[in-house]
Design goal:
It contains 9 helices and no strands. By secondary structure, it is mainly alpha-helical.
Length: 196
């Protein structure tokens, strides 16, 4: 992610923003959203709580900024040279997020809390909008290569891929087969019908 991103992104915030974001995500992973407090973040990060409140007026706003700006969730879109390869790499990133601690604890806590907190839900939407914007070059390259129609709903495409992983891991709590990523991308791109 570019250091020049602004708003809730990397360039905005106090001098120790990364320490604050790290503390926020660490506490979320350990205690869940209910146990996450500005005071706890201040203590863990070594930053005065009034400084945190000056930049983020609530824990929802702070968590939203941490989701977008923290190094722990940093993201670089893949460029494998093919749409299938790029989508497999993107889905692999989602699978890793959902199956590797502490990222999996963060993801599951955020998902659960967003259903209960309208304020956090807004920040989670911002996070996903930020991610789809970062993923856009993958789709632009695929359109340029003739692999994807220009009017493809790329958000829907990613929802289908990521949703399969979320349902399998977080909701059904089933292990992922070795070929899960390739099969899921293949099904989304090619469908499930018998080819004649």
């Amino acid at each position: 992610m570019s250091e020049e991103r602004h708003g809730t992104r990397r360039s905005a915030g106090p001098r120790k923003a990364q320490e604050i974001f790290d503390a926020t995500l660490d506490l979320l992973a350990e205690k869940g959203y209910e146990g996450l407090t500005i005071e706890g973040v201040a203590q863990r990060s070594g930053v005065n709580k009034t400084t945190i409140y000056r930049w983020w007026p609530s824990k929802g706003a702070l968590l939203g900024a941490a989701l977008i700006g923290a190094r722990q969730l940093d993201f670089t879109p893949p460029d494998t040279g093919s749409l299938t390869g790029d989508l497999e790499a993107l889905l692999h990133t989602v699978v890793t997020l959902l199956t590797t601690r502490p990222a999996s604890d963060i993801a599951v806590s955020v998902l659960g809390a967003a259903t209960q907190s309208p304020e956090l839900a807004v920040h989670v939407r911002d996070f996903f909008a930020d991610r789809i914007a970062l993923e856009q070059p993958v789709f632009d390259r695929a359109v340029a290569r003739g692999e994807l129609a220009a009017d493809t709903d790329t958000t829907l495409l990613m929802d289908l891929l990521a949703g399969a992983a979320w349902v399998r891991v977080a909701l059904r709590q089933l292990p992922l087969e070795k070929d899960f990523v390739a099969r899921t991308v293949g099904t989304v791109l090619n469908g499930a019908r018998v080819r004649t």
